[in-house]
Amino acid sequence: MNVILTSDIMSPDKRQLNSLNGFVDKIHEYVDDINCLYIPSDPHTPFLTHTISSHHKRAFKKSGFTVKRWEVLYPFKKRKLQQLISHANLIILAGGHVPTQNKYFHDIHLKQYIKDYQGLVIAISAGSMNSAREVYAQPEYFGEVKSPHYHRFLEGLGIVDISVLPHYTDIKHERIDNQRIMEDVTLPDSHGRKFYAIEDGAFIIQTENKIYGNCYVIKDGKIKKVCTTGYTVNLRGVN
User: Fold this and answer.
1) How many domains, the chain?
2) Does the keyword Cell membrane apply (predicted)?
3) Quick check: is 238 in a domain?
4) What is the CATH number of the domain that holds 138?
5) Is residue 59 situated within a structural domain?
């Protein structure tokens, strides 16, 4: 399968897909007529899932794609997951709360069913994070930094072997539980590991070994910018 790891797929005006860094053209290289399976982050928020997935569906149409099929994995459809995957040429892993989505993916055995899939996966935000073998669940909500029960490292889908942190511009100055999320939490957690922090509009395609747009490598307690808007770099060439 081919996997596009993104931070946000929508244009700044939220009306269509973000064409920055050639994102729309890149999707067209893989698929034009879409049979999509949309997998949400939380099975317990069907109205929110319907709203966001419908918004994304319209965005694909406005960006020149023919949407032939658009299935949303609501809870009552989970028994048909294997069949739904077999009918799809595009799987979207939605954004949301990383641990909530991670638990849902385990509950529906998505890792087992997706491993032989041959189409395109577009992962958004939390979906990108949960695509990794080892997921870094960067704290997001009040209480998660200090809680002894919050686990920052989780087992993911394993469809990529890199860890992505989305929305870098938004989170780099955030504070949670009176801790700076980057300096006090993520940088210490990066010792012995490597995270790829991407801004909205940037994306990574590991099968191409390429980073597109603004991206920073967080490694061993340090942050370094490795790619900028309008450019691509080799994923394996950055340290």
Assistant:
1) 1
2) no
3) no
4) 3.40.50.880
5) yes
Q: Is 143 left (phi over 0), alpha (psi -120 to 50) or beta?
A: left
pTM: 0.96
Taking alpha carbons only, the member of 122, 134, 48 closest to residue 91 is 122
Per-residue H/E/C for the chain: CEEEEECCCECCCCCCECCHHHHHHHHHHHCCEEEEEEECCCCCCHHHHHHHHHHHHHHHHHCCCEEEEEEECCHHHHHHHHHHHHCCCEEEECCCCHHHHHHHHHHCCHHHHHCCCCCEEEEECHHHHCCECEEECCCCCCCCCCCCCCCCEEECCCCECCEEECCHHHHCCCEECCEEHHHHHHHHHCCCCEEEEECCCCEEEHHHCEEECCEEEEECCEEEEEECCCCEEEHHHCC
Tens-digit pLDDT profile for residues 118-177: 999 999 999 999 999 999 999 999 999 999 999 999 999 999 999 999 999 999 999 999
Q: Which residues of 193-221 are buried (b: 16+ CB within 10 A; e: fewer)?
A: eebbbbbbbbbbbbeeebbbbbbbbbbee
| Domain hosting residue 197, numbered range | 2-233
